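ESCALATION

Customer reports they have been waiting on this structure for their group meeting. Please prioritize. Original submission:
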Amino acid sequence: MNDKRRPYIRPMAGWWHKNPFFVRYMIREATALVVAAYALFLLVGLVSFSRGEASYDVWLQSLQSPLAYGLNLLALLGMVYHAWSWFDIMPKTLPPIIINGKPLSAALITGSGITAAVVAAVVIFFVVWSLNL
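Update from on-call: job pushed to the front of the queue and completed.
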């Protein structure tokens, strides 16, 4: 018998465009790059701080441009979306948490994570603001 079957090759181009779940997934993954880039940016500030006052003043001065304000705003929006999406997916990735014989609801798990993140951000903001940093 002459078998001329070919192996199935799944097309990969644009696979994530077709399903809203995968679009959100790809956006969440892209915002991880924003978080990593901002961490590197803060690391540059730490290195400039370690090199002395003049170097740190140059880094601080670079934060005063309108471009820096815009990039920081975009980074903030990316991080907020990243944090929200992380807490939104958390109930799907955790093993069931059983309290008094009943599993915790997904909304409670997500809401608790978001609340903890907001409280931590507010505490950090007020500590930094009170120290005039």
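Sent to customer with the following note: The mean pLDDT is 89.
Escalation resolved.
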